[in-house]
Amino acid sequence: MTDRSTSHETSDICLLLRAHGEQRWLIYEVIPVVRQLEHPEGLPPDQRGAAFAYLEALWIEARDRARDTDAAYAELEPPGSGDDYSVHEKARRYHTAVRRLRTSLAQRVERLLTAPATSPRASRSPNRYASF
Length: 132
Known about the structure:
Layout: H1 7-38, H2 45-74, H3 85-113, H4 127-130
């Protein structure tokens, strides 16, 4: 069997898969913990420290996934260099949507991990969590 895929198609598909994986990670792993910490009424006080530590670990993984997605975006061939322009554009739009989700979520995570007073993470540096 002959492999007819070009590097352009491969880079498009790689970006689509990376962006999809990052999006699912943020939605199904990170956001539920963020919501729980933003509305801690149902969270026993003795479990808040563990929840913050878990969020910190999830956020480290999220930043790693973001770097992988952005690296796949950097490998994307320029438009018009491949056969299927629609896949190329879908990959670029998906990456843009995931970046927006990532940025929005980063603000929420930063607020939680650098919150003063009641947070056990209050003594941490704000810049440590903010950017990708």
